[in-house]
Structure formats: structure tokens, C-alpha cells
UniProtKB/TrEMBL annotation:
Signal peptide: none
Family membership noted in the UniProt record: Belongs to the oligopeptide OPT transporter family.
A Pfam family it matches: OPT
Protein name as catalogued: OPT oligopeptide transporter
GO (cellular component) term, any one: fungal-type vacuole membrane
Highest taxon of the lineage: Eukaryota
An MF annotation (GO) of this entry: oligopeptide transmembrane transporter activity
Bilayer-spanning residue ranges: 6-25, 87-105, 144-161, 201-226, 269-290, 334-352, 358-378, 453-474, 513-534, 555-581, 587-612
InterPro entries: OPT (IPR004813), YSL-like (IPR045035)
NCBIfam families recorded: OPT_sfam (TIGR00728)
Broad class of the protein's primary localization: membrane
Entry's localization field: Membrane
Source organism of this protein record: Dacryopinax primogenitus (strain DJM 731)
Length: 635
């Protein structure tokens, strides 16, 4: 949730869960008697632990996209604390049907198509190195201590830095030159080119490919160093002076706009090209891999068609059979996953009708689309380890916004309906991709898919209550998350801006899009489609890495003008590249542990800061503004 609200990117908990789970459960398995949980703890048990962690982490996405957008649009109560019952019940709706209908996809994506699922492979190698080998115990201790040290340092650093953010967290280097008399460099500060000492996003850079990191930073440079200043210079977008004491220091992030069509801020202007890039990038990838998608549907429907209309005399084609290495008693039977899908679907239809007055037929249709979008998420996760879940949720918003508009619902009812159905699709596709990553790990380790399902159900149960509680904590400490603001917020929440923009667009009588922004969005969309076609049609696969990652570019468009995270990711990726080159064994030993510790540590440090903020003892109350622009606290 913390990372999603910061950048719109979400990261599974598998690596952190596998290493920290080992650190906690391995000693307990030896210290406790068997009746209290002691006994053998090996790679297969470690996979189950990791699955629970992954499942527990997947529901936080709802609170970094759809729910804040609903509050910004005034569709729910004034405060999330007043809606805690509805938040919990809706999260319950999203918690399980994605998990259940993922289970039959295991045979297709993992056993038959053998997709890579890079995150799942990384987790499998990590777990195996903790348990297997001549020096496994010594290596496990080293990895565990590196993760724990990094985790603790990240938490402490995140908390302490709040009390001197201009020195310990954000380096507003251009402002320092401005204060020394170089007035022209204020534009660098205004466009968000700040370096941030963030363990989480430097850690992210350690584990993502250079293509993604370079695309993220390149998209930020294109939008907020070239196009943004050009828009302001030509009068297509407008900023506002932050203080008369520094007239060169301009706010380009204002979302409180009297005339968003004719006088947009650069941030609002870029929402539409950013959304178009994300939508077209996902559609193009789907179109380019349509044969695999068609095979997915065909293979899933074959067993059902055989039961409806069996071909008793058919010859069995060995190549068409899917070999499943898991013993029969460890596989997930039809009654279990099918019954789970049916039960969770009925429960979702009831809750959305009672709590939000959504037509049960619309809910059922939304779940069908959620399943379809889950296949897309699975393909993306399996091939490139990037899941465009918010884009898939936006697809669902567009579809159900049109349905609601055709049904004669008011704009606010339409916005709530398309937001809720979009979150169903978003949660299901993210869960599906995350679960399949774990199932890849299970397959490589030889663990039990059924045990993994039980762990995922337990992890989701914890997350239902924990995610809602953490959201209330964050929004109580930082109310700007749920409100449109003229100033910057500690949590820029780029997914929320995209979500809100789509909700308004599909429910409005006329599209609130600046003409120049709409034309640019169409041009970008067409370019993305053409480039993806060239990539798959005319370019050998080994050269695909040289094509930009348009999902990362779209996020950079929507995120800015806050460019700390693209810079931090690129820095981390450069460090990882040099590290792999100089010492491949050293990176394999410590790289993932450092990244996982930094990501999780900063996230939990953010929760500590939120609690301190509520208690009025945070850096905003007790800290210093030294190093911050205008000598105003910048934490």
C-alpha cells in the first residue's frame, strides 16, 4: 500500500516472505515441540510460508487506486473510518475469487506453456539456496542477516529522515544553487528533479531489468524535462507561483482547476497521454500474443466440453495432454476451486447489492471480465514480470461506465459503479498474477499446490482487516491522499489520478480533456501500437530488450512532476548492473536480500511515520526544514 501510494507500482511480498519466513520459522521449527509447530522445515514448507505472505500483500492495491479516487470524488463518506464496515466487506469480495480461479490456470501457464514468471524463479532459487547445498546453512544465515540488517536500517532511516527531510531524505540540490543566486535553476526544482535516498526504490532498481528502469527514467525526462516546459512556454498548460518570495518557483501539480480543459496544469494535462499509453501498451501486448491467449481459453474449456459432450472414441494425442508432476493428493480438485469460485461470486453479488446498491447482474458480468483480465495479467507476469493491473482496472471502468451510462444512472452513481467493478478486475488480475508466480515457485521446488492454496486463503484473511486498518491510519495521518489538492502531498498516488480521470471521463456529458492533450494521447497510442507490431512481427526476440517498456513510461507520465522515484530506480539498477558484472556470485548471494529488506523496511517505516503523525510528534511537528525550499518543511 505504501509503495503503491508513493508511485503506483506494486511489488509482491514473495522474496521478503521467503527469506524472513525462513529466519523466523526455521529456528522455531527446532525449538518448539511438534505439537506446537515444531518439526521439519524445508524448501516445501518455505514455499507455503512465502505464499501466505504474497497473498497477504496483494489486497493493498485497492487502497492505492480505486478507494482514494472514490473519496476524492465524494462518492463515499467524509472519512474512511466512517466506512470501515463497507471497506472490509468489499475487500472480502476481492479477496478470494481471484485466488480460486487461478488454481486451474496452473496447468496451462506453468505446466503447459512453461512461462518464465521471473519473480517466481527468483523466489525458487532463493528458497533453494537457503536449504540445499553443502554450505546452505551458512549461506542462509548470511542472507537472513543481510535482510534483517537492511530491513531494520530502512525502517530507522525512514523514521529519522522525517525529522530532517531536506538533509537525510530529499536532496533539493537545485534549490541550493537558487539560494546562492542562480535564479534560473529554480525550474529544475519546480519540475521535480530531486534525488531521494529511498531504500525501497533503490531496492526496486536492484531487481528490475535495466529496460524497465531506463524506460521509467526516460519517460520522466520526456514528460517533465522536454514536453512539460514546452507546454508551459506555448501556453497549453499553466503553473502557479508557490510564493511571492520566490516567483521563479512554480507549482505544476495543481489538481484544483477552475477550467481543466482550457487552463490545465501540466500534471492534469499528462494524465490523458499517460492513460492512453498504458491502455495501448497492454492492448498491443495482448494482440501480439493472441495465439497464446486463445490457447489458454481453448485448454480451459476442453475439460468442460468433454463432460458436456464426450468423444468416447477419440484418440488421445500425447502432445495435447498436460503433464502435472504434482501427486494427485496434492493437486487442487475441481470441487475445491470450483466451489470456491461459486461461493465467492455469490457472496460478492450479495455484498455489492446490499452495501453499494450494485445490480447483481452487473456484478456477475464484472466478475466474468475480471477473469478475462486475469488471463491478461497472467500473460504479462509470466513473460515480462510486469503486471498492468491498474490499466486492466481502467479497462473495466470504461466498459461498466458505458453500461451505467446506458442504464440512465446519475454521474455519481456511474462513477461509484465503474470504480467498484474496476477494483474487482484489478484485484483479481493482480491476485492471479501473484498466485501464478508462487505456483511457478511451487512447481520448481516440488511443493504441494493444495497446501499453497490453503496458505493463500489464510494470508488473504489477514489482509482483509490489516489493509483496511492501514488505509485508515495512512489517510488519518495524511488526509491529502483522499482530497484533491493544490499543493503536493507526501503520497502522490499516480494510480489514483488515472482512476479518477477515467471515472469522470466515462460519466461526463462531454470529455473534460484539453484538445492538445487528447491529440497527443492519440498520437502516443498509435505509436505504441505500431512499435509493438514491429517488435513482434519483424524483430528477433533477442532484440526485444531494446524496445522501451511503455507501461513504465505511462506511469512516469502520470506520476510527475515528481521524479525522485525514476531516478532512484535507475540508480539502483545501475548499481545492480555493475555489481553483477564485477561479482555475479556476490549479487546472487546478497542482491535480492538487500532489495527485499529495503522495500519492506521503508514500507513499515512509513506506517511508523503515519502513527507519529497522528500522535503529533512526527517530523512535521518536531522536525527541521533545513535544506527544504522556502525553508518550509518538506517531509
Amino acid at each position: 500500500m505504501y509503495l503503491g501510494l508513493k508511485t503506483g507500482w506494486n511489488f509482491g511480498a514473495s522474496l521478503f516472505g521467503s527469506i524472513l519466513g525462513f529466519a523466523i520459522l526455521k529456528p522455531l521449527s527446532k525449538a518448539l515441540p511438534e505439537k506446537l509447530g515444531g518439526g521439519y522445515f524445508g524448501p516445501k514448507e518455505n514455499v507455503v510460508c512465502q505464499s501466505a505472505a504474497t497473498s497477504a500483500g496483494s489486497l493493498g492495491l485497492l487502497f492505492a487506486s480505486g478507494f482514494p479516487a472514490a473519496y476524492q470524488l465524494g462518492l463515499l463518506s467524509a472519512r474512511p473510518a466512517d466506512d470501515i464496515g463497507r471497506l472490509i466487506t468489499f475487500t472480502l469480495c476481492c479477496a478470494y475469487f481471484g485466488i480460486f480461479f487461478t488454481m486451474p490456470l496452473r496447468r496451462l501457464y506453468v505446466c503447459k506453456l512453461k512461462l518464465k514468471f521471473p519473480s517466481g524463479i527468483a523466489a525458487a532459487f532463493t528458497i533453494r539456496s537457503l536449504h540445499v547445498g553443502k554450505n546452505a546453512a551458512a549461506m542462509a544465515r548470511k542472507k537472513t542477516w543481510v535482510l534483517i540488517y537492511t530491513f531494520c536500517v530502512a525502517i530507522v532511516w525512514r523514521v529519522i529522515s522525517e525529522y530532517a527531510p531536506g538533509i537525510l531524505w530529499d536532496w533539493h540540490w537545485s534549490w541550493w544553487f537558487y539560494s546562492a543566486g542562480w535564479k534560473w535553476v529554480a525550474c529544475i526544482e519546480s519540475w521535480g528533479w530531486i534525488f531521494e535516498l529511498t531504500p525501497a526504490f533503490i531496492g526496486v532498481g536492484l531487481i528490475i531489468p535495466m529496460n524497465s528502469a531506463a524506460s521509467f527514467a526516460g519517460g520522466a525526462f520526456l514528460a517533465w524535462a522536454i514536453m512539460g516546459p514546452a507546454l508551459v512556454a506555448t501556453g497549453k498548460a499553466f503553473g502557479s507561483i508557490i510564493s511571492p518570495d520566490a516567483p521563479e518557483y512554480i507549482n505544476y501539480s495543481n489538481m484544483l482547476l477552475d477550467d481543466p480543459v482550457n487552463a490545465p496544469s501540466p500534471k492534469y494535462w499528462f494524465i490523458w497521454p499517460g492513460c492512453m499509453v498504458l491502455l495501448c501498451a497492454s492492448l498491443a501486448e495482448i494482440g501480439a500474443n493472441w495465439k497464446s491467449l486463445l490457447a489458454s481459453f481453448s485448454m480451459m474449456l476442453t475439460p468442460v466440453l468433454e463432460k458436456i459432450r464426450p468423444r468416447k472414441q477419440r484418440e488421445i494425442d500425447p502432445d495435447a495432454e498436460i503433464y502435472d508432476p504434482a501427486p494427485l493428493n496434492e493437486q487442487v480438485p475441481l470441487w475445491l476451486w470450483g466451489g470456491g469460485v461459486l461461493t465467492s461470486t455469490v457472496l460478492t453479488m450479495i455484498i455489492l447489492k446490499v452495501q453499494f446498491s450494485v445490480n447483481p447482474g452487473v456484478t456477475l458480468l464484472a466478475i466474468v471480465f475480471a477473469f478475462i483480465f486475469s488471463l491478461i495479467g497472467a500473460e504479462c507476469a509470466g513473460r515480462v514480470s510486469i503486471i498492468p493491473v491498474t490499466t486492466l482496472g481502467n479497462f473495466s471502468q470504461l466498459i461498466f461506465g458505458g453500461i451505467s451510462k446506458g442504464s440512465g444512472l446519475s454521474p455519481m452513481e456511474n462513477q461509484l459503479n465503474n470504480g467498484l467493478t474496476g477494483m474487482l478486475a484489478e484485484a483479481a488480475s493482480y491476485q492471479c498474477a501473484d498466485m501464478l508466480n508462487d505456483l511457478k515457485t511451487t512447481h520448481l521446488i516440488g511443493a504441494s499446490p493444495r497446501a499453497q492454496l490453503y496458505a493463500q486463503l489464510a494470508g488473504a484473511l489477514v489482509s482483509i482487516f490489516l489493509s483496511c486498518g492501514m488505509y485508515v491510519v495512512f489517510t488519518t495521518a495524511y488526509p491529502c491522499i483522499n482530497s484533491l489538492t493544490a499543493t503536493t502531498c507526501s503520497f502522490p498516488a499516480p494510480d489514483v489520478g488515472a482512476w479518477r480521470a477515467v471515472s469522470v471521463a466515462v460519466s461526463a456529458g462531454s470529455l473534460p480533456i484539453p484538445l492538445s492533450s487528447g491529440i497527443t494521447a492519440i498520437v502516443f497510442g498509435v505509436f505504441v501500437l505500431i512499435q509493438t507490431y514491429v517488435k513482434y512481427k519483424f524483430t528477433p526476440e533477442k532484440y526485444h530488450v531494446w524496445f522501451p517498456n511503455w507501461n513504465a513510461i505511462g506511469v512516469a507520465f502520470i506520476l510527475g512532476p515528481i521524479n525522485t522515484y525514476p531516478l532512484a530506480c535507475l540508480f539502483g539498477c545501475i548499481v545492480a548492473t555493475v555489481w553483477r558484472w564485477k561479482s555475479p556470485a556476490g549479487f546472487a548471494m546478497y542482491g535480492y536480500a538487500l532489495a527485499a529488506g529495503g522495500i519492506a523496511g521503508e514500507g513499515l517505516g512509513g506506517i511508523v511515520n503515519a502513527v507519529l503523525q497522528i500522535a503529533n510528534v512526527s517530523g512535521a511537528y518536531k522536525g527541521t526544514a533545513v535544506g527544504c525550499p522556502l525553508n518550509a518543511y518538506c517531509g
